[in-house]
Design brief:
The complex is a heterodimer of chains A (303) and B (234). Chain A has 303 residues and is an alpha/beta fold. Helices cover 34% and strands 26% of the residues of chain A. In chain A, β1 and β2 form a beta hairpin. Chain B starts with a helix and ends in an 8-residue tail after the last helix. The chains are: A alpha/beta (303), B mainly alpha (234). At the A-B interface, α1, α2 and α3 of A face α1 and α6 of B.
Chain lengths: 303, 234
């Protein structure tokens, strides 16, 4: 669906050029959800800008379904939500969504119904639609941003920090909308620092560092990313728990909050560890596993 | 393009500060027009500057432009929609000012005659002048940031007006003639009251005026089609 080949992009003029992307190559398959991860300044925003056709690469190519990213046929199936939502503050929520519905090529006669439906999907109350965007909280702006991106059920979604600044309910709503789009087969590129959310919705993560792709890692399927288990036991039994796990061949260490952490290769490893602790008569208060994105982030994707 | 015009009107009249400023300006223009109908309505330069300032550049810096360009619309549709938006908003302003002028005239003189045709010609002349000024503003807005477009236009027009006189004072006749030529081509003086009465419609100034509008719009479209718009920093 999206093919990026040997992409170079720099900013500035003459002797003061800063290289933002240095030979990025990437492929996103139709229906895949890919998370772009990397530290600030890694080139994620520049890459998204190139994918959307806002920036022209110095070298290399970007194609979407074989077409240029700024081709109107590509635009017709694209939904986009920027990280920054500081615009059109004097428009009401309803006027903003109506405007984007019509821009997206929606039937003008159906505007009212579609706007109400889009707002309902992100749980924005009807009363909020009558207020100006200048009166919206950050969380509400994020929600209406997601609502506009999802108008007309686009087959291609570019989302930049969609849940940034939202409360836990907002995070859940944004996640549900992404999963919904994913469920209907949309191709999604997600730029986010919220690693747990990335893990929940993405099929694959791409690490960018210093303008290069340092790692591309599947989160699901036959070759998933390394995972890490966290097991919480009573504070006074942590040492005993570490010893019990060591007897079972698991090298766990205690985090500052008393939680035991250890790498696993499959969910069954976590079940075995819990069983070992139970047999040692150590209560397990909580047990969970997650992809070790934080560690990958720390090492710049070079794990 | 209609959607762009609609958005522009909403942006300008949806802002309480802008609506108030335009209201006050309309009242001032009307008060003047009540006594000098053709003169005042064609001098809505401040209103036009207020309406058109940051026409593209503010959208680009706020990120709104990028959201629009992600939609299936051509860049030229956006650009000319913004241009049409300035003209439409200025047209509304002129109509409100004209209506207020008629009310003031009725209250002061007890009769609308012969103000109506004069005021109508004043509106038309103001709109005609706005076509060129808005095109110049649009041109600057495609590559300058924030409100630098209006500053550039004011400085450019000021330089055009002053340059021939300064050159003449400095006894540089060639430079003075060049300045005059430049001014006549970039900012042709058309006697709209004559043209609107059907006289000298196809005269040289009218042709220069049309050409200037077309050149500024073409340059704006050319620059805008080549420009890059990042929506943030890495």
């Amino acid at each position: 669906m999206i093919v990026v080949a040997d992409l170079f992009k720099s900013y500035g003029r003459f002797g003061r050029r800063a290289q933002a992307l240095s030979g990025v190559s990437l492929e996103v398959r139709r229906g895949e959800t890919v998370g772009l991860i990397g530290p600030n300044g890694a080139g994620k925003t520049t890459l998204l800008s190139c994918l959307l056709g806002f920036l022209r690469p110095d070298r290399g190519t970007v194609t979407v379904g074989g077409l240029a990213p700024d081709d109107l046929a590509v635009r017709a199936m694209t939904g986009y939500m920027p990280e920054r939502l500081g615009f059109d503050r004097d428009l009401t929520g309803a006027a903003f969504l109506s405007h984007h519905w019509r821009l997206a090529g929606g039937d003008p006669r159906d505007t009212g119904r579609q706007v109400a439906a889009a707002a309902a999907r992100v749980e924005l109350p009807g009363e909020a639609l009558l207020r100006k965007l200048s009166g919206y909280s950050r969380g509400m702006l994020q929600r209406i941003g997601v609502a506009q991106a999802m108008l007309r059920d686009p087959q291609l979604l570019f989302l930049d920090e969609p849940a940034s600044g939202t409360d836990p309910l907002g995070v859940a709503i944004v996640r549900d909308r992404i999963l919904e789009a994913k469920g209907r087969g949309a191709t999604i590129v997600l730029n986010s620092h919220q690693l747990p959310e990335v893990e929940r919705v993405c099929d694959r993560v791409v690490f960018l560092s210093g303008g290069r792709v340092t790692q591309s890692q599947a989160l699901r399927g036959p070759d998933p990313a390394p995972r890490r288990a966290s097991v919480r036991v009573p504070g006074d039994r942590a040492d005993a728990a570490i010893a019990a796990l060591a007897r079972d061949g698991v090298a766990a260490h205690a985090l500052p909050d008393g939680t035991l952490s250890f790498p696993i290769s499959a969910e069954e490893d976590l079940a075995r560890a819990v069983k070992a602790l139970a047999l040692a008569d150590i209560p397990v208060l909580d047990a969970r596993s997650s992809a070790d994105l934080e560690e990958m982030f720390r090492t710049g994707g070079r794990t | 393009m209609i959607e762009m015009v609609r958005r522009f009107l909403r942006q300008r009249f949806g802002s309480p500060a802008m609506a108030t400023a335009l209201g006050v300006l309309a009242l001032m223009t009307a008060a003047q027009a009540a006594t000098d109908p053709e003169g005042a309505l064609s001098t809505g330069f401040i209103a036009l500057a207020l309406i058109g300032a940051g026409v593209v550049s503010r959208d680009a810096s706020s990120g709104a432009l990028q959201m629009i360009l992600a939609r299936p619309i051509k860049r030229s549709a956006y650009l000319f929609g913004r241009y049409a938006g300035i003209i439409a908003t200025f047209g509304v302003f002129q109509l409100v000012a004209a209506a207020l002028a008629l009310v003031i005239r009725l209250l002061v003189r007890g009769s609308l005659e012969p103000a109506v045709p004069e005021i109508a010609r004043g509106i038309a002349a103001g709109l005609a002048n706005a076509l060129l000024l808005a095109a110049i503003l649009l041109f600057f807005s495609t590559f300058l940031p924030g409100y630098a477009d209006i500053l550039a236009m004011l400085m450019g027009l000021g330089a055009l007006a002053l340059f021939p006189g300064i050159a003449a004072q400095l006894r540089l006749p060639t430079a003075a003639r060049f300045g005059e030529q430049l001014r006549e081509n970039i900012l042709p003086r058309v006697d709209w009251s004559e043209v609107l009465r059907g006289r000298h419609t196809l005269g040289e100034p009218t042709g220069q005026f049309v050409l200037a509008v077309v050149v500024f719009l073409t340059l704006a479209a050319l620059i805008f089609s080549r420009r890059e718009f990042s929506y943030g920093r890495d």
